[in-house]
């Protein structure tokens, strides 16, 4: 508490008045006011972390390479938080009004960030990977703006908590940061386990913005209203009502917005769109003579227009030899499984696919199940819903004649371990004597570094390899940037075994148009490992 100054004794100079505001006139007891401020810190910290995680998650989905996206978002945001703290020093003399304005703006910017980023991605055609598109610039801009506003909260909240009851600065900092860190923990756990699965990314950020606006506005207008001028109170009420109205309008239109964005990305014949908990799955076409397209996390994975040539080229060379027991890693769409089952002598096929809902879609969707030849109805097929890496660690040794690796692009960080030396070492252990491993390695023409890194990694695991390729069909050209369809140029594969494998003939059982790629890549490429992934190019 700041004591009033006593009159100066005669003959002495009057003491200089103390600087800084006195204690706030609170409508509640100081202890209650302190609790309300720390509660506001908790809620605002949780909202701030949700905005941060949302930017990382959405950018990883839209652009791939989650390590790069997370690094950019976090580094820009932390830098901006420091800058925001410095800039907020000028607002400390009007901490209540400044904090109210910061929270209203943060709620609007953070709450709308996901929709804005998704809209730019959908309507500009920025399919990314390269750091030059509109989505990238907008990602950095939102990271910077949200970081500035989050950083401005700390000095303003420190001033407000001291206005409630003066205490030593160390104690005030400890209380403030404790509430801030616990709030960040709550937001960090709520996003993946509650908000994302129940609401999705767009609705989750809109709801978070609403909570942020209500918490900030209630703290300032309820607890510190006597620190505000009448004009400030009116402006904050109008600003918060406007922000809440905008967020509510966006929430009401989010389903229509998402459908329109989906149509902009995939065309107007989207039949199925769902988030499985593992990935986003979109099915287009497949009815009224329209070609079927299966997109996983925005990338074309299956095109009915290629006539199955991509998966035929993956599977058929590996089936030259004993093939009674076959293991398919990934391939939940059923296309690789269809090619396996076309060969006589197959007694059992184990499919290890993490996304059980994708397998269910491949079983039940009329167009997709017709494309995969209703492969999942075959009694020889056994499906295991598991991560391929973890499953291989427990798999029986030398149990399979053929292993088919039909997995997502290694540029996605979550898939990089499935293209590592350790992974191929585990796959080698489950191969029987004379067994073959077939790996989908991406486009040799569009991404030669990644292709030859796959080959080098398989060889580093103790297998001998034959890299080969198939030209992309005209129907597949230009249909996105998924594994096997990049720029519609070609499809590249690696066939491996303990002894040197053989492709066989150029057609027939080996697949139409299959030809060896030769050793045209760099001879000294290092393998990709769990601790040193090497597929970014």
Could you walk me through the main structural features you see in this protein, from its secondary elements to its overall organization?
A hairpin with a 2-residue loop joins β3 (293-296) and β4. It is elongated and about 85 Å long. It has 14 helices and 12 strands. Strands 7-6-5-8-9-11-10-12 form an 8-stranded mixed sheet. A 4-stranded antiparallel sheet has the order 1-2-3-4, covered by helices on one side. The chain folds into 2 domains: 30-265, Up-down Bundle (Growth Hormone, Chain: A); 306-516, Vaccinia Virus protein VP39 (Rossmann fold). It has 537 residues and is an alpha/beta fold.
Derived structural class? alpha/beta
Number of helices: 14
CATH domain class of the largest domain: Mainly Alpha
CATH fold title of the largest domain: Growth Hormone, Chain: A
Main beta sheet strand tally, sense and closure: 8 strands, mixed
Strand order of the largest sheet: 7-6-5-8-9-11-10-12
Number of strands: 12
H and E order: HHHHHHEEEEHEHEHHEHEHHEHEEE
The CATH architecture of the largest domain is Up-down Bundle
Strand content: 5-15%
